[in-house]
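hey
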């Protein structure tokens, strides 16, 4: 067989392989959590399968921890403004996943929710085992790592967490539509994007 006769099949094979490898960048959006399911607990200490239990709703998703002194405070406030802009809707749910499962147990998240007037039917605060949260962060490409660490007088450990500053919009089919910088959230812009999905 002549070289030219091999060229066309090889070119076709190369194009097919490149197309498969580049599917996410060719318009196909990634499934939330890489298509996996995770067992978590909400602020009411109820078990939640994330994201399976939220199918059919558009999600506004953030990653925070309650001891965060800076980024999470701003991100959560921006989400509160966004929620006020959009109002209470049956087809929309706000979800914040803790990056600090050691300290953010359900009762801690419940206290956090009460202080901020967060209702669980409109805004779920989620935590889980350390391994589950680590796996979920990996699946969502969210960075989180302990940074400043010191020991308190009572011997307990105090630390902060360096982490991604992200708010993701997920459609009712569980597909990530867009990611925003949480501390720079433009409420009107994001509300407009969400309204197009609802």
């Amino acid at each position: 067989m002549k070289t030219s006769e091999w060229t066309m099949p090889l070119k076709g094979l190369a194009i097919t392989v490149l197309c498969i490898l580049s599917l996410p960048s060719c318009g196909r959006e990634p499934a939330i959590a890489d298509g996996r399911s995770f067992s978590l607990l909400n602020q009411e200490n109820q078990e939640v399968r994330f994201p399976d239990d939220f199918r059919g709703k558009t999600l506004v998703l953030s990653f925070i921890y309650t001891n965060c002194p800076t980024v999470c405070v701003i991100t959560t406030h921006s989400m509160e403004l966004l929620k006020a802009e959009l109002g209470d809707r049956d087809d929309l749910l706000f979800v914040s996943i803790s990056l600090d499962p050691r300290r953010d147990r359900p009762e801690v998240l419940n206290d956090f929710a009460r202080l901020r007037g967060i209702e669980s039917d409109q805004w779920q605060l989620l935590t889980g085992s350390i391994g589950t949260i680590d796996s979920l962060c990996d699946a969502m490409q969210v960075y989180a790592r302990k940074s400043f660490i010191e020991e308190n007088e009572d011997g307990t450990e105090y630390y902060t967490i360096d982490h991604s500053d992200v708010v993701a919009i997920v459609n009712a089919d569980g597909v990530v539509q867009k990611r925003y910088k949480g501390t720079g959230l433009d409420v009107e812009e994001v509300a407009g994007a969400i309204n197009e999905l609802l």
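The longest helix spans residues 3-21. The chain has one domain: 31-197.
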